[in-house]
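Weekly structure sync, notes
Attendees: PL (lead), two postdocs, one rotation student
Agenda item 3: pending single-chain targets
PL asked that the sequence for the first pending target be pasted directly into the notes so everyone works from the same version. It is reproduced below exactly as submitted, 205 residues in total.
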Amino acid sequence: MKKPLLAMFFLVGVLLGCSTTGDKRQAKTLFNGRDLAGWVVMYEGEWTVEDGALVGRNGRDWSTNPEKSGSWLRTEKQYSDFILELDYAINAGGNSGIFIRSALERNPAFTGHEIQILADYGRQPTKGSAGSLYDVVPATKNMSKPAGEWNHVRILTRGRRIQITWNGEPTIDYQTDRLIKGYIGLQNHDAKSLVRFRNIRITEL
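Predicted structure, written out during the meeting:
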C-alpha cells in the first residue's frame, strides 16, 4: 500500500474515533510517574519508578508457548476501543512489548496482541521485529531508534481494527480475529532486558 493512501486510512480512523455527540473525550494518565498505582504485577519480575519513568528488569519465564505466560505488568481495568500513547526506551539486546486487549489466562501475546519492542534499529521488518504485531504481521517499516533512545508509540483500536503509528510513521493497519476487550500490559522479558516507559496515557473511545 502506498504511504499517502495508508496515511489517509489512519486519518479516517482517527476521525471515526471521535465522539459523534460532540463531546471531547480526554486522555487519562495510566502511569502517574511516582508509583505503580493502577497497575498489577503478573508472575513476578521487578518494576520500579526511576526519574519519573516506569522501569522493568529481571523478567522471567517467557516463551513462545501460547498457553504459558511470563512476567508482565497490567492495568487494573480492561479496555476495548481506545487510543493508547506512550514513550519507551530499551537497552541494547533488550526485549519487551506492549500488550493490548489481553486476557489473564494463558500468554497475553496470544490472547490479545503484543506490539514488539526491541533495540533493532535498521533491521528489515518481520513478524518479530520492533513495531510488529508479534507473530502476526510486520510493521510496514522498522521505525525503532537506536538502543537507549526514547521512542513514541500510538495505538488506535476500534472494533477489530488496530492501527499503529511508530515515531510518527503509520506502520500497521490490521483487522484482528482475537479479543476486542482486555488488559493493557507491559512485558518484562528477561534478566538481560531493561525497558523504560513514560507518558502512558489512554483515551477511551
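Discussion points:
- The chain has one domain: 3-204.
- The helical segments are 3-16, 108-111.
Action: rotation student to compare against the earlier draft before next sync.
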